[in-house]
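Weekly puzzle thread! Below is a chain. First person to post its structure in token form gets bragging rights.
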Amino acid sequence: MEITIVTGKPIYVQIIDGVRKAIARGDVVTGEKIASQRELASQLNVNPNTVQRAYRDMESLGLVKTVRGEGTYVSDDPALVEKVRDEMAIEAMVSFFEEMVSLGFGQDEIGKMVQKALEEYPKR
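Winning reply:
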């Protein structure tokens, strides 16, 4: 699981997004143990409290489960991967639509551009 920290977005959110993306791609599977908070803080060179917040938030979202003395594991919910992929896809589309609207495009124009891009995509 790779997480790259960039500026402009809270680090704990980037950690959560990185875990979500790893789940969606299948880089980590349900029930798999992930890095400890200390290990991840060291790997990313960030404050352990930041990682602790990310893990706490991921637990409240149902992404992970922490077993005292054993570690943190990706939730064993079989529907988790599909749920995370769907959520991330919707977030990406909303971001795309917001950007297109801010550029002055209407729904019809966006639809035509998306259709054209989909037709050309395999050719690239």
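Puzzle host: Confirmed. Bonus trivia for everyone else. The longest strand covers residues 64-67.
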